[in-house]
Amino acid sequence: MSHDSISDDPLATMIAATMQASLAAMAQSTTQPATPPPVTLDGLLESQGAKYLPERYRPIVSSVLAKGVPGSMLPLIEHLLVRDGRTPFVVLIGPTGAGKTTLALTLPLAMALHLGERRFERPMFVHADDVCAARRFAKLGDEPELLSKARTKRLVILDDVIGQKDEAGDLYRVIRHREENALSTIITAGFGRADAATSYGEQFARRMFAGISHIVAPKGAEPTRGGR
Q: pLDDT tens digits, residue range 92-104?
């Protein structure tokens, strides 16, 4: 039997070299962390958008953000990030077809692109009708999972608040909990504060409009931003 050293065996030499290269790569990865790849719209659509962005909205959202975040969105993004005692609510107001929902769905992706990182967990998109109807399909005494998530997710898009009957008070409870806990919330609505007070009461309207409102103008009109 040969007693040649391991270096004389070509296969052993190759294995040893491979192990040394692997150890060197591991050492480099621990001392020099890899630079994360830049955040791209395609990447965000795949990671975040795949979970909350309906397929039919993707082409227009991609078009809006194709050249980066529009400057007109920056004040809305900045308000959704506030945590200094103000409420990070943005209410988008306008008639049907004005683009409220499209803007609401675009904002989370615009935020991530603007920040250069994925700071937010995937947003929850929920229609106000579904919030109001959630208890009809739940067992007596059980809280529907939809309501729990709508109250507690870090970022929620509450779509199409238009005066639905809030018989169980769940729409109010969702808005109240999010306002009291300063959770970022995007609400689309077919009316302003005065009409909200008429439909739901002054306390509801006060909480719903605790942040800022943004008028989404019909096609051909110039959009404007409103205050509290």
A: 999 988 899 999 9
What's the CATH superfamily of 41-226?
P-loop containing nucleotide triphosphate hydrolases (3.40.50.300)
Torsion from C-alpha of 187, 165, 174, 80, nearest 10 degrees: 10
Q: Cα–chain-centroid distance for residue 185?
A: 9
pLDDT, position 173: 96
What's the one-letter identity of residue 171?
A: L
Q: What is the pLDDT of residue 26?
A: 62
Place 166 in a pLDDT band, splitting at 50, 70 and 90. Answer: very high
How far apart CA 194 and CA 14 sit, in angstroms, is 78
For the chain, domain boundaries? 1-34, 41-226
User: Residue written as tokens 């945590």?
Assistant: 83
Q: Is the pTM of this model over 0.85?
A: no
- Gap between the Cα atoms of 163 and 198, Å rounded: 9
